[in-house]
Fold:
Amino acid sequence: MYIHENVQQEPVHITKKLDFSVLVLNASYEAINICNLKRAITLIFKGVACAEEETEHEIRSASTVIRIPTVIRLLKFIRIPYRAVRFSRRNVLLRDGYRCQYCGEQFAPSLLTLDHVIPLSQGGKTQWDNVVTACKTCNIKKANRRPSEAGMSLLRKPKAPPIVYYLHLLKNIQGHHGSWQKYLFSND
Structure:
């Protein structure tokens, strides 16, 4: 099998492209997983899923041509039990994109700290909705105060990340295919 672009170019052997990530939606259009291209094509050919979004690239065999999917949807609804993302330093840094939530600068993990929005001494808890990533400078400036008391504001209110968004971050931190936007991310 070979991958072709619709423009005139030499075909690229498919084994070089099978690590391409594809978003998997439940029948209800809820994002439930991310799989590789080979698995997505298998699900489509078995009649378990259909392509919702595709690229301009094609996969060709002697008898079949299929456009490369970026999003597939299962044809039957599958009940998925709720799974929470484990709270950890690494996961908070991932959620916040290694960006200080006060100044907006992006840093290496070793230069970032975790900050309690409401300090522990004022009754704050160590949980998703009270902990943000902060650079050392902003964390020292805020000290043991609430952001409003320190004259600072958050870029966004902290909350637990949805499991699929978290899975996506782990698999592809550099970015996602643009067609995933309407299925993965809310506008808040």
Remarks:
- The first helix runs from residue 37 to 45.
- The first strand starts at residue 2 and ends at 4.
